[in-house]
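Retro notes, structure queue

What went well: the backlog is down to a handful. What didn't: a couple of records were mislabeled last round, so from now on we paste the full input next to the output in the thread. Example, using RING-type domain-containing protein from Astatotilapia calliptera:
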Amino acid sequence: MTVPNPVISNDDLSCPVCRDIFRDPVVLSCSHSFCKACLRNWWTEKRIQECPVCKRTSSRSDPTCNLVLKKLCDSVLQRRQRRTSAVSETLCSLHGENLKLFCVDHQRPVCFTWTGTYLGMK
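Corresponding output:
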């Protein structure tokens, strides 16, 4: 059975404290989620265990891990990392151009600008 892929925005996966994608998300009894480190820092700074969003006092000093949110965020971060790696592999590190040619002498893909520079050295 195929599960439909709902559209999820980065805002849905962002910690309200750091505004970045959740890292080790925890959930409070009020149902708000935060990065574990963000919540600890918030509580240390404020000296009171309250929700940064709704200000409700938390009875637990060690909130529960939000496993579903963690898996979702980890998946998004992995896809983002793969995309970044794929882009960096297809662009010339010197010129930022697509690697569309292959240099037989150096046995590596090269861009047009590198080819022109290399041919001028011969």
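Agreed that this is the format going forward. Reviewer comment attached to the example: The mean pLDDT is 83.
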